[in-house]
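How a chain folds remains the central question behind the approach discussed here. For one protein, we set the task of working out the structure tokens from the amino acid sequence alone. The sequence in question and its structure tokens are set out directly beneath this paragraph.

_____
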Amino acid sequence: MSDATEKVLGIKRLPIFPLPVILMPSELMPLHIFEEKYRQMLKDVELERNLFGISFFDPQETLEDKPELGTIGCVAEVQDVQTLPDGRSNIMTTGVIRYRLIDYVETDARYFVGEVEFFEDEKEDETILQSLADEVFVLFKRVAEAAHKISGMRGEFPDIPQAEPEMLSFLITSAFNLETDLKYKMLETRSTTERLENMRTILKKAVSKIEDSAEIHKISQTNGHSKKKINL
């Protein structure tokens, strides 16, 4: 049993927080809680396991008033709470595990409560998966290093640990500002291989462009002299 599955063991119902954002497992997400019903939700989950569900919902894109049944969301675990004098809160959450919204449950709460079914990726060939994960990690690190150079080397370059393939696929996905439809597709797939292959394609397109930009930035800091020719 994974750590994520253990955290939700025995849970069948979950408070649902509809938001126009997509949370991935292992992703850090700060939230500002200001509506009264979600203030109450925060108080309620503090009495349990500090868990609630974030389901993608953009009221501008639908005539519905809540996420549709069958949609995929991610459990958010409250890590830190900063309560403001007027009752609002700034909180930090971490994505735990994905769920499918099965049904809505009638309760006395003003916020939505859903019956949910948790899931993780399907088992795949570890040898093939690890090789793919290694390739994606190298590409991601190249992009991160180039981005650090473009920033003017501000701050210390962060240590980027290589997580196991499934977690790595989520961490790298969450590190990019992907279009909503693509990020949702990455969330709902149960194949680590598919997610990593998608990110490999994205990273391969990004890496040469950002490394060239980093080189241009380096040239601009050295009066325009460089041993490398750059195709523009």
Q: What stands out?
A: The longest helix spans residues 192-220. The chain has two domains: 3-119, 126-220. Strands lie at 13-19, 28-33, 51-56, 72-83, 89-104, 112-119.
